[in-house]
Amino acid sequence: MLHFLFPSLCLHCEERSPNLVCKNCATFFELIDPLTRCPFCFTENEGRHACPECREKKRWRLRCASALDFTPPVQTVVGKMQGGQMPYLAKTAAAFMVMQMERLGWDEPDLFIPIPHHFLFPSTHLAKYLNGKVSTCLRRGIDQFYLKRGAQIEGKTVVLIDHVMKRGTVLQDAAEALREGFPKKIYALTYARALY
Ligand SMILES: [Zn+2]
Ligand SMILES: [Zn+2]
Fold this sequence. Notes:
single chain, 196 residues, Rossmann fold, two-stranded antiparallel sheet, 7 helices, 31% helix, binds zinc ion
């Protein structure tokens, strides 16, 4: 156990390091500045305006954000989280998400809703460490999301949680399913944003 608390090798490059990741790799764990991103898909777009694609597709209903860019060291952390044997990684990842949420200035959330996956993925662990109520009311069928019967999200501000946002379509689809429960507001937050 001590080995996990005081790892002697960097998780990513395996250089000797007193911390989870060495000094070099740690530079990749810097929060993305939300002011440099499109608030709807979180691609780079100076000045916090909607990017051309979001404007064209009128994606005004779902604000999406991530804590970190999906650089190789961050990919390593996500890969290890996916195994599910390292809950402390989800805990530190969630800490980055909490810090990012403070900078985003979103409305106070009532519920965190992890994106369900077919295999063991860390979204549920991440949600658990976000200091709030977690609801698993979102389910996944073969090719679509649906809301669990009796889900109590009406009038609530909810935040969808996932480990990585790629093109954002999974979050969009999940948000569509949530809308059937009449939430007041839906946001989506992920640990990492895939590079584009
Ligand atoms: Zn390293
Ligand atoms: Zn956009």
